């Protein structure tokens, strides 16, 4: 059942050092969030290649910020020193919080949590899973009370929402720590219970489904987007899809045997959004503004 209440008057644990498991899209983004907030963080991945790519992505973001005058060179160096990488899970020892962002696979996550249980016996263990049952992940450890979900959104350094997921046995102190660390990272924590897709993705799914239905009924992408931007949304669903890349959801649907009539046909035609210059809208090379 959903348990959305945040315990009152429970002190959060101090987190002085963090670890992130997985150096992919989310792992690298989450590790960067810790370093950006001034916290030492170790990023662990089974693949040395993923680790190098993840670190490179993060450093490029920092370098671009320095170029734009948003970050000093000294601050970039400070952040680089805060971020370490390792292929051996044993490197998490000493971290008070571990955020797991490895592949979305229950067997992998349970293996990782069982190993973390021994390597980091006192740490709070969080998973960034989007859809897997966190109670089942927690059950791979001997201390399910110290397991919770910390669900970031992509790109993790930019998106402010973090769903703090309370599993069946999550201790109040652990939940309070999840909320506090999200705030430390400059995020907006929302406490949710274990359920399929939590809140954010469920709401987004409704929007995607209705966009499909309206397009099939003859509405145009810019009309749908204009209606929602008038309601105060910063961007319409079609522009957001083009920005994020339509191919990401397409690959996910294919893996699940699902189909979205319009979005799939766009992808089949190579229209992935801004990255290919065409999606719901067309774009001049390098431009983020749709051509009307
Ligand atoms: P990804 O495929 O980009 O990265 C996964 C990484 O995990 C790879 O670098 C892989 O080498 C590594 N890995 C695999 N097994 C491992 C193990 N045993 N130990 C350490 N590392 C291991 O995946 P992505 O997109 O970053 O997703 C990671 C998690 O975040 C998944 O649970 C996903 O559902 C969740 N998530 C993804 C979002 C997205 O927009 N991509 C948004 C929110 C959550």
UniProtKB/TrEMBL annotation:
Compartments where located: Peroxisome
Keyword presence, NAD: yes
Gene Ontology biological process: fatty acid beta-oxidation
Chloroplast keyword on record: no
Residue ranges of domain 3-hydroxyacyl-CoA dehydrogenase NAD binding in the record: 18-193
Keywords in alphabetical order: Fatty acid metabolism, Isomerase, Lipid degradation, Lipid metabolism, Lyase, Multifunctional enzyme, NAD, Oxidoreductase, Peroxisome
A GO term, aspect molecular function: enoyl-CoA hydratase activity
Record-annotated 3-hydroxyacyl-CoA dehydrogenase C-terminal domain positions: 197-283
Similarity section: Belongs to the enoyl-CoA hydratase/isomerase family.
Subunit-level organization: Monomer.
Name of the molecule in the record: Fatty acid oxidation complex subunit alpha
Part of the intact protein present: 279 to 570 of 690
């Amino acid at each position: 059942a959903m348990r959305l209440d945040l315990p009152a008057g429970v002190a959060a644990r101090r987190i002085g050092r963090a670890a992130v498991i997985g150096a992919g899209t989310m792992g690298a983004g989450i590790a960067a969030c810790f370093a950006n907030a001034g916290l030492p963080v170790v990023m662990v991945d089974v693949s040395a290649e993923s680790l190098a790519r993840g670190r490179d992505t993060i450093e490029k973001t920092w370098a671009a910020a320095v170029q734009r005058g948003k970050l000093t060179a000294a601050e970039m160096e400070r952040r680089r020193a805060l971020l370490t990488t390792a292929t051996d899970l044993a490197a998490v020892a000493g971290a008070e919080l571990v955020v797991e962002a490895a592949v979305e696979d229950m067997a992998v996550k349970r293996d990782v949590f069982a190993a973390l249980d021994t390597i980091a016996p006192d740490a709070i263990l969080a998973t960034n899973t989007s859809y897997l049952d966190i109670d089942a992940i927690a059950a791979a450890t001997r201390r399910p009370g110290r397991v919770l979900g910390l669900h970031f959104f992509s790109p993790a350094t930019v998106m402010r929402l973090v769903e703090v997921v309370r599993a069946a046995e999550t201790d109040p102190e652990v939940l309070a720590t999840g909320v506090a660390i999200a705030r430390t990272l400059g995020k907006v924590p929302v406490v949710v219970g274990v359920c399929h897709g939590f809140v954010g993705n469920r709401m987004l799914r409704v929007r995607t489904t209705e966009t499909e239905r309206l397009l099939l009924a003859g509405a145009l992408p810019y009309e749908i987007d204009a209606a929602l931007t008038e309601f105060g949304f910063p961007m319409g669903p079609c522009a957001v899809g083009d920005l994020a890349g339509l191919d990401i959801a397409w690959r996910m649907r294919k893996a699940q045997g699902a189909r979205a009539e319009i979005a799939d046909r766009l992808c089949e035609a190579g229209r992935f959004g801004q990255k290919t210059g065409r999606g719901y809208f067309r774009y001049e090379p390098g431009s983020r503004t749709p051509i009307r």
